[in-house]
Amino acid sequence: MCAMRRESDADRAVAAVLRQQGGLITRTQVLAAGWSVAALRHRIRPGGPWLAVLPGIYLGSNGPLADGQREIAAVLYAGAGCVLTGPAALRHQGVRVPATNTVDVLVPVQAKKQSVDFVRMHRTRRMPDQTFVLNGIRSALAARAVADSARSEHDLREVRALVAGAVQGGRCNVPQLAAEMRAGPTRESGRLRAVLEEVADGVRSAAEADLRLLIKRSGLPEPMYNPDLYVGSTFLARPDAWWKDAGVAGEVDSQEWHFSPEQFAQTAARHSRMTAHGILVAHFTPKQVRTEPRRVIADLRAAIETGRQRPPLKIRAEPHK
Fold first, then answer.
1. How deeply is 262 buried, as exposed, middle or buried, from its count of CB atoms within 10 A (0-12, 13-18, 19+)?
2. pLDDT of residue 90
3. pLDDT tens for residues 105-118?
4. What is the model's pLDDT at position 203?
5. What pLDDT does residue 262 have?
6. Nearest alpha carbon to residue 87 among 98, 76, 71, 77
7. 127 in the Ramachandran plot: left (φ > 0), alpha (ψ -120 to 50) or beta?
8. CA 54, 134, 263 angle in degrees (round to 5)?
9. In three state form, how does the secondary structure of the chain look?
């Protein structure tokens, strides 16, 4: 029988680092632990037990990277002092974001390393003073992460979704987003500025923003957006759009824009309350707003014309604060 290879102090040191760093390790850490360059090369050889995932960054298995390991690898590559931003930072803070393999990292302006593979480096003179820390990884707070994302994102709907997710999730507020927009570079900030203008009108989600834009282009009377409706002193509902003179509410309904089945059920209950008080509720899915705009406008126009043929409803509307 062949004698079993004894684990060395260097092996134990490498194993400890891998455990602490989610199965990843740097070249510097490997050599500092006592392994030779030859031993490292043997591990990362084609078909070997390790995988080189970034320059000087190794996975202690032959892959693929699991959830969360991309962020760890990106931070190890970027070096001390770096801070996650963009979708990865928002995801760490519980904000729902579109799936992406890219990891955005803020580094000081003097940093030397370049963007590579799935790591996108952002050199900045405004490194965050405050950060969100999860499992030892620092992330920019939500307002900064949204602003950075918006400058890289060319789809206005995705920017709307980022803003809606962060604000509705309570991770930041509109004034904080506006402050970040002003403090950062003006280049590529137009989409974020447009979305913040929509939010100022009371629009809360990407789907509602699509409805707002459709209404503005349609020639329909301008409604109130997200007003608080009252019957006497009793709060009734907060519809997405409200035509007071007609007693018509426009709603965009989709589980995609609600955080749980319970909240979706609350939407249905809200519709029932409004209908019980005589409100004509026209509701649409986000897909209908995007793909059937003529039908949406026709339905709203018909509801408004019908509503204007009756006496005004005794419902008070106030801008939502």
1. exposed
2. 95
3. 999 999 988 999 99
4. 63
5. 55
6. 98
7. beta
8. 115
9. CCCCCCCCHHHHHHHHHHHHCCCEEEHHHHHHHCCCHHHHHHHCCCCCCCEEEECCEEECCCCCCCCCHHHHHHHHHHCCCCEEEHHHHHHHCCCCCCCCCCEEEEEECCCCCCCECCEEEEEECCCCCCEEEECCEEEECHHHHHHHHHHHCCCHHHHHHHHHHHHHCCCCCHHHHHHHHHHCCCCCCHHHHHHHHHHHCCCCCHHHHHHHHHHHHHCCCCCEECCEEEECCEEEECCCEEECCCCEEEEECCHHHCCCHHHHHHHHHHHHHHHHCCCEEEEECHHHHHHCHHHHHHHHHHHHHHHCCCCCCCCEEECCC
Instruction: Please check whether residue 50 is in contact with residue 17, taking contact to mean a CB–CB distance below 8 angstroms.
Output: no
Cβ-contact 98, 161 below 8 angstroms = yes
Residues 6+ away with beta carbon under 8 Å from 163: 146, 150, 177, 192, 195, 196, 199
Pairing type for strands 57-59 and 51-54 reads antiparallel
**Nearest alpha carbon to residue 282 among 311, 240, 320:** 240
Residue in this structure with the two tokens 């929509």, named with its chain if needed: 198
Q: What would the pLDDT profile of 125-155 be if each residue is shown by its tens digit?
A: 999 999 999 988 999 999 999 999 998 887 8
Burial of 314 (0-12, 13-18, 19+ CB in 10 A): exposed
Burial of 78 (0-12, 13-18, 19+ CB in 10 A): buried
Number of residues that this document lists for the chain: 321
Identify the pLDDT of residue 235. Answer: 94
Tell me the one-letter amino acid at 302. A
Nearest to 129 by CA among 119, 109, 144: 144
pLDDT in tens, 155-193: 888 888 888 888 878 899 888 998 999 898 888 888 898
